[in-house]
Amino acid sequence: MIIRRDFIKQTGLAISAAGFGLSGFNFFVDKKPYKMGLQLFTIRAPMAENPQQALKTIAGFGYQDTETYGFDGPSINFYNMPAKDFKKVLEDNSLESTSGHYDFIKYFNSSTDELIRYTDQSIEGAHALGQKYITWPWLDAESRTIEKFKILTDKLNMIGERVNKSGLGFAYHNHDFEFIDHNGEIGYDIILQNTDPELVKFQIDLYWVAHSSPLTAHELFLKAPGRFVMWHIKDMDKVTRDYSEMGNGSIDYTKILPDATLSGMEYYYIEQGGNFAQNPIQSVKDSAEYFKKNLIDLFG
Fold it and tell me: What phi, psi does 156 have (nearest 5°)?
């Protein structure tokens, strides 16, 4: 119960914050109502078989947001559907899509014109779905040297500028290979230091950070507060260190979720790349139930 003096104290602080122009001040009660998201790669087999049924099923588990993967640029198609048709399927199931993983790696060694063409196609697709972010999700094995990381940063800045001008945000998604030490140089540091903070944000994969990074998620957030606008949330098997359903693994999310504001998180997506206890649908159901029961209220 909030007694009168506490109410006056709290409202006084809120008024003071408004006086300083802190429109995003979230003291006490104005915690952002994040929507529970799912990276659809988790259910790639069901999505390939029957995307309409797969999306209806995950909506029934309480997911409200999705992140796409795979995109046919020339035809502006998602999951063998024109973007407008795929958006209708999402809407029919009270779902949205706030980010997509787009296949920029295919154009890493292409001409600038080809990369720009694909970027523009991605922008068209993202706008058609109402997405907020376009994400670069992957580097192939040939593109993971320090020299290639330095080339990558120029490409990220160029794409980020074009995407931002379109009214969307642009982000880079990590795996484990960004944290490999190359004689004192680390790819993730190069990306952090050589990309424009206004143009290139980060989608942090918290599994890969726990698995391979020399720094904790909190330490990374402190290096670039406000820049980690999206999170991938998944657990790590206690023995094999492979993927695991939420709650079955070793990652202590009670210590990570309170950093949402520090990191700048706007959206999060539960994901499990494989190693399903039974099947992907059961895994996303189990992860949703655990997350809603134990973790969803811990975002800070």
Answer: -65, -45
